[in-house]
Amino acid sequence: MPTNKERNIVQTKGGVFNELSSYIKLILRLMGDRRVPFYLKLIPIGSLVYFLFPDLFIGPIDDALVVWLTTYLFIELCPPDVVQEHRDALSQIASGQGKRAGSTQDPLKGEDDIIDAEFWDKSKS
User: How far apart are alpha carbons 4 and 15 in whole angstroms?
Assistant: First the structure.
């Protein structure tokens, strides 16, 4: 039986579900970005409508293929610099370097950056 040193072990970054999650987050971020033209945002919306109501269209088209093709087409047609910006931001969040949505802590400030102040209510004086 081969030992670990003799075997080639390929370690992934999280597998299929992690990649799918990143892909969906990228699409959602691009949908919310004002630099992406509105007509391109109709592609994933149309894909979602088709996925929810596949009987609207006649033909033996596989639903998963249509969803994959339209989401791939959407990302490819978006401005490349905008796509790269969002991919970089998502990779920073995944690695723990970036600021997560809803986080109130500024990642650039340390715990030593505490402001001490007193509150004075002018209406009571």
Answer: 21
